[in-house]
Amino acid sequence: VLCAAQDFDFFYFVQQWPGSYCDTKQSCCYPTTGKPSTDFGIHGLWPNNNDGSYPSNCDSNNPYNQKKVSDLISQMQQSWPTLACPSNSGSSFWAHEWEKHGTCSESVLDQHGYFKTALNLKAQIDLLQILRSSGINPDDGFYSLSSIRNAIKNAIGYTPGIECNVDASGNSQLYQIYICVDTSGSNLIECPVLPNKKCGSTVEFPSF
Ligand code: 5GP
Ligand code: 5GP
């Protein structure tokens, strides 16, 4: 029997620090459900190839359907909050992530499985707790990029990718953490290719 092989090599599981999304010239808007908790939030689960390329928008016949994830919505509001303007419930962010990225792993994870898998990974990897245990706290100034990377590597066993953005004064700040996951979505792996994102050598970890 021939099975369709999945057309990607691994996932990036990407979490964002809300303080850094909001502390920019562009600012942010809280979701209609209220200010998110002081925690990393899910950005997405992104199919990727070993050469660094990635597929996107793979199946326009399988649009986001909230009915398929109705049992997960309260967890998504908690762990996958939107911060883009204008304020909304989050469904436009979730729809964007499913349609751009999730449809490219639909041979492995259906819509419910895609969101459930990301929520499971979030529950498994408590980045704020990991950083705090290493003395890396929000609203406490600047940290070396290597101290952040090492704290996460020592806790999860694999080297993360780190992306920064820039605040209104031009400071580099910790924005997103990329962790690699196998094609099943359930096992962390060493990244076949680290995302090509940049940070200053010291980065701010702003409050939220
Ligand atoms: P940016 O250009 O802001 O880094 O990324 C814009 C969007 O492109 C991201 O939100 C994500 O959807 C996609 N993207 C950027 N870099 C990667 C990557 O390395 N892998 C995958 N799968 N998607 C990416
Ligand atoms: P990407 O294409 O980079 O995966 O996703 C970014 C898209 O999702 C953008 O269109 C952005 O406006 C939207 N979006 C909605 N809420 C958020 C959020 O909280 N964080 C980020 N990074 N993008 C968001």
Automatic annotation (TrEMBL):
GO terms for molecular function: endonuclease activity; hydrolase activity; lyase activity. Transmembrane segments: none annotated. The active site is at H43, E97, H101. Gene3D superfamilies: Ribonuclease T2-like. Pfam families: Ribonuclease_T2 (PF00445). Keywords: Disulfide bond, Endonuclease, Hydrolase, Lyase, Nuclease, Signal. PANTHER family: RIBONUCLEASE 1, RIBONUCLEASE T2. Belongs to the RNase T2 family. This is Ribonuclease 1. It comes from Abeliophyllum distichum.
